[in-house]
């Protein structure tokens, strides 16, 4: 068995299980070795019940005090017991596990491990892991247990067993880094490092291994980007874009003036489109800075010159919103262009008719999701494509969208406030424009950082906002790509909040475990104010624009990076009403207070990103999950900024000395980079 062996060659993995592994991108033993944990469970010694802290996962030991109760209805049965030790008693809840009444009611010592939260009747441990008899806990004490992202039919234990087998095949011959780089940076041998990524003996051992693979991830990404750019460098502009008077009239008739920054970026965009080479430009701007109107101007300019422009959205809800906005503008300002919507949920007849209008050139501005690059979508003369960082283009996507003709101009919009020095490395194949000025009439969001004792006051404030016709978000924390563990917490929170708010306020629930169609239906209901309060994980970070939403409350705010908190805050403050952001934290640490105070004092995303970069150190086991182009498996552009800078310099040096990476000791790195380039070019979704 080696790294290229099928994952089905591992003991205990049959044909059915192999197909499930393939769903998560694990086809070979090598893929499994690189399927790193999304987090770790660290099993510490039990603490006295009197010392449990709100907002933390803790372990307690004691005996059942009184009777075990089961309440609720068939859909949500709640099992309640009280655990007692010499220092005190704590209430414990389990959801949908009524059988525990019989299992745990036999007496004896229990050890419970779970998250402690504050409810009306004090501190409560919710849905803890049970160790009964208590001696079972000794097997896990002081260990770091890997937690993997899962899919239906795959348990964490199944992955652990498979990874342990796969690691037997791991040796230093699998290392893709040249020896010169391993020695230069003092990295540990590959086999030791990869074992420490899955089953570390200590936190320090994991952090050291993680640094090695974060660097590797950055290096491969940057090399792939630069080698693709070299192969596809500066294609000639085959489109002729003349200035059009309709654009000037449109800008004069708008009820607001573009900011100086917007005007500057629009000039850069127009210059690119009229230049000698095809445009590949990133427009980077904070949430609410007005990137979308710049994109609309580019699409209108393409349409008025007889070409087509396409705008890609990450969700159908947002695509529909863009379509309605563009259609309204075309009609309101008398611009003689036709907009077309194309999404996956349209009927076969609707799609067929849309395809016909697109192929004939009748539709000038096409808005949609990934449906825009399906084979049946044939364009008449596509000249410009606008997308966001969620939908990065590879070479093949550009060719597909070009209708097997010339390369279209590409505009990528990003609201992720990355410091410019890092953006230049990450977006090495794009020219960069920055909108660094907010519209003058934009009301700044009012912020507050509070502890959990403020929660009831926050609920009353949300009720008041809803009574005035407004809407609210409540965000619950999510760690990593899988929401399998967090989704149930969000559901339970939404049940609790629905009871708190009463029957006149509809509370919705949104999480990543839902199918896309379900997510879109919930977001559509929220956009139409059929749902007044949306309880969600961070899936709302991208893909919904509801100007009527004026409050966002972020639970356990200390568990997010500052930049991600700022992105979440950007879901409100998008309309004419005053908006509010409530950062709820159970942490009492000075470090948390300092971090969140930055958000309390500033709404400037680029300032916040810089502070995030300054404050976040290597102590975090995992960085926040980034979106789109920044969606690295383990690396984090803020936490690992120094590694990113280092990888950028090393990539430049490697390619300067050996542009094809053909020299001795680089064959594995070259093969891996070529594989990444192929994957990028063969992707079929945006």
% residues in beta strands: 15-25%
Estimated radius of gyration: 27 Å
Overall number of strands = 20
Average pLDDT, to the nearest integer?
84
Largest sheet: 7 strands, parallel
The poorly predicted ranges are 479-488, 623-629, 682-686
Strand order of the largest sheet: 10-11-9-12-13-8-14
The backbone outline, from C-alpha atoms, is globular
Q: Helix proportion of residues, in percent? A: 25-40%
* Count of alpha and pi helical runs: 22
N-end to C-end Cα span: 36 Å
Query: Structural class, judged by helices and strands?
Result: alpha/beta
Question: How would you characterize this protein structure?
Answer:
The chain is an alpha/beta fold. The strands form 4 sheets. Strands 10-11-9-12-13-8-14 form a 7-stranded parallel β-sheet, sandwiched between helices. A 6-stranded parallel β-sheet has the order 15-20-19-16-18-17, sandwiched between helices. The longest helix has 29 residues, at 203-231.
Keywords:
20 strands; disordered C terminus; 38% helix; six-stranded parallel sheet; alpha/beta; 686 residues; seven-stranded parallel sheet
How are the SSEs ordered, and which strands pair?
Blueprint: H1 15-23, H2 29-33, E1 39-42, E2 57-72, E3 77-85, E4 88-95, H3 100-103, E5 109-119, E6 122-131, E7 144-147, H4 156-167, H5 179-185, H6 190-198, H7 203-231, H8 245-253, H9 260-273, E8 280-285, H10 291-304, E9 308-312, H11 316-332, E10 339-342, H12 348-360, E11 365-368, E12 382-388, H13 395-401, E13 409-414, H14 420-426, E14 431-435, E15 446-451, H15 455-467, E16 471-475, H16 484-501, E17 507-510, H17 516-527, E18 533-536, E19 549-554, H18 562-569, E20 580-585, H19 590-601, H20 605-615, H21 641-657, H22 667-682
Parallel strand pairs: 4-6, 8-13, 8-14, 9-11, 9-12, 10-11, 12-13, 15-20, 16-18, 16-19, 17-18, 19-20
Antiparallel strand pairs: 1-7, 2-3, 2-5, 3-4, 5-6
């Amino acid at each position: 068995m080696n790294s290229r062996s099928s994952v089905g060659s591992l003991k205990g993995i049959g044909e059915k299980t192999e197909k499930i592994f393939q769903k998560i991108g694990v086809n070979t033993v090598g893929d499994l070795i690189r399927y790193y944990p999304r987090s770790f469970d660290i099993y510490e010694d039990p603490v006295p019940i009197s010392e449990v802290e709100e907002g933390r996962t803790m372990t307690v030991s004691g005996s059942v005090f009184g009777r075990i109760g089961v309440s609720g209805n068939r859909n949500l049965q709640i099992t309640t017991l009280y655990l007692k030790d010499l220092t005190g008693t704590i209430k414990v809840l389990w959801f949908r596990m009524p059988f525990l009444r019989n299992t745990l009611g036999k007496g004896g010592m229990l050890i419970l491990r779970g998250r402690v939260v504050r409810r009306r009747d004090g501190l409560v441990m919710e849905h803890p892991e049970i160790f009964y008899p208590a001696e079972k806990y000794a097997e896990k004490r002081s260990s770091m247990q890997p937690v993997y992202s899962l899919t239906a039919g795959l348990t964490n234990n199944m992955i652990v067993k498979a990874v342990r087998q796969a690691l037997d095949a791991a040796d230093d011959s699998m290392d893709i880094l040249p020896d010169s780089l391993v020695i230069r940076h003092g990295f540990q041998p590959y086999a030791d490092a990869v074992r420490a990524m899955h089953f570390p003996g200590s936190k320090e051992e994991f952090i050291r291994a993680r640094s090695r693979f974060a660097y590797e991830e950055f290096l491969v990404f940057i090399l792939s980007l630069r080698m693709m750019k070299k192969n596809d460098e500066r294609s000639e502009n085959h489109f002729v874009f003349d200035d059009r008077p309709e654009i000037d009239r449109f800008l004069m008739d708008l009820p607001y003036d573009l900011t100086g920054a917007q005007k500057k970026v629009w000039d850069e965009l127009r210059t690119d489109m009229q230049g000698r080479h095809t445009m590949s430009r990133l427009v980077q701007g904070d949430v609410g800075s007005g990137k979308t109107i710049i994109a609309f101007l580019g699409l209108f300019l393409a349409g008025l010159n007889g070409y087509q422009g396409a705008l890609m959205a990450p969700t159908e809800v947002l695509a529909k919103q863009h379509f309605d906005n563009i259609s309204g503008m075309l009609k309101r300002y008398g611009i003689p262009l036709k907009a077309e919507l194309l999404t996956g949920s349209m009927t076969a007849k609707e799609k067929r008719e849309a395809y016909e209008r697109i192929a004939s050139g009748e539709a000038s501005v096409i808005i949609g999701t990934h449906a825009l690059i399906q084979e049946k979508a044939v364009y008449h003369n596509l000249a410009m494509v606008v997308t966001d960082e969620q939908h990065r283009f590879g070479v093949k996507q550009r060719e597909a969208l070009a209708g097997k003709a010339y390369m279209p101009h590409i505009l990528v919009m990003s609201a992720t406030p990355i410091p410019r020095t890092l953006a230049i490395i990450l977006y090495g194949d794009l020219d960069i424009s920055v909108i660094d000025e907010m519209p003058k009439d934009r009301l700044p969001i009012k912020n507050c950082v509070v502890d959990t004792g403020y929660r009831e006051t926050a609920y009353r404030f949300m009720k008041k906002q809803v009574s005035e016709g407004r809407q609210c978000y409540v965000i619950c924390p999510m760690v990593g790509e899988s929401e399998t563990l967090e989704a149930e917490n969000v559901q339970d929170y939404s049940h609790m909040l629905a009871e708190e708010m009463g029957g006149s306020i509809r509370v919705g629930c949104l999480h990543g475990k839902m199918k896309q169609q379900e997510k879109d239906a919930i977001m559509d209901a929220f956009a139409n104010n059929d749902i007044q309060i949306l309880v969600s994980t961070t899936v709302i970070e991208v893909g919904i624009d509801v100007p009527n939403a004026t409050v966002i409350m972020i639970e356990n705010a200390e568990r997010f990076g500052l930049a991600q908190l700022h992105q979440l805050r950007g879901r409100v403050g998008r309309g004419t009403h005053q908006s509010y952001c409530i950062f709820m934290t159970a942490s009492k640490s000075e470090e948390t207070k300092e971090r969140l105070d930055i958000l309390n004092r500033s709404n400037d995303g680029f300032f916040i990103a810089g502070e995030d970069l300054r404050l976040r150190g290597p102590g975090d086991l995992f960085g926040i999950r980034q979106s789109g182009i920044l969606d690295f498996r383990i690396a984090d552009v803020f936490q690992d900024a120094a590694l990113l800078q280092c990888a950028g310099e090393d990539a430049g040096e490697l390619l300067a000395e050996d542009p094809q990476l053909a020299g001795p000791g680089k064959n594995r790195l070259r093969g891996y980079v070529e594989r990444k380039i192929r994957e990028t070019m063969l992707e079929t979704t945006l």
